[in-house]
Amino acid sequence: MSTAPAATATPMLHFLCGKIGAGKSTLAQALAARPGTILLSEDNWLAALYPGEIVDLADYARCASRLRNAMGSHVAALAGAGLSVVLDFPANTRRSREWLRQVAQEAGCAHQLHYLDLPDEVCKARLRARNASGTHPYTTTDEQYDAITAYFVEPDDDEGFNLVRHEQR
Fold it and tell me: Which strands sit side by side in the sheet containing 12-17, from one edge to the other?
């Protein structure tokens, strides 16, 4: 008996944009609970492939680039097989979103870019709670949050994504 998700008639790619602690992974899990949908988490893949090797932003950039090079055609193949895919990879810069747009073009299916737009103080509070819980493969300090967030670029309509905005309620 197979435990693989059943293919859907119209596969969808879901991309996620938002600062650390905005709730991207939580939303990704909810989206992946839909029938015929699979979740690919950058954090989980990086932790499995590079245990103990990612200690700073340069390490992250190097390892994440390798992972993205391997994942693009894999995602397209999954969509080609009729599966919807949630890519829990941060779409937080124009460059990262360009990669995701290329993945969507290669897959040839519909996509949505989910933008979680929350204030820094909310994200930092959630990040501290996540760090304390020990449930995430990485911990991030407030200083690291600030350094990483300095690279964040809000998505723009001219980038060509089907944007779904999620704001704090």
Answer: 37-41, 84-90, 12-17, 110-117, 163-167
Q: Residues 126, 134: contact at Cβ < 8 Å?
A: no
pTM above 0.85, yes or no: yes
What is the distance between the alpha carbons of residues 11 and 154, in angstroms, rounded to a whole number? 26
The DSSP output letter for 21 is T
Instruction: Return per-residue pLDDT of the chain as tens, 169 residues.
Output: 445 566 656 899 999 999 999 999 999 999 999 999 999 999 999 999 999 999 888 999 999 999 999 999 999 999 999 999 999 999 999 999 999 999 999 999 999 999 999 999 999 999 999 888 877 767 888 888 998 899 999 999 999 999 999 987 5
Contact 15, 87 (CB under 8 A): yes
* Closest to 3 in 3D by CA, of 46, 38, 29, 51: 38
Cα gap 100→16, rounded to integer Å:
10
Catalogue all structural domains in the chain, each as residue range(s) with its CATH number: 12-167 (3.40.50.300)
Token pair, residue 94, equals 């124009």
With contact defined as beta carbons under 8 Å apart, do 69 and 116 qualify?
no
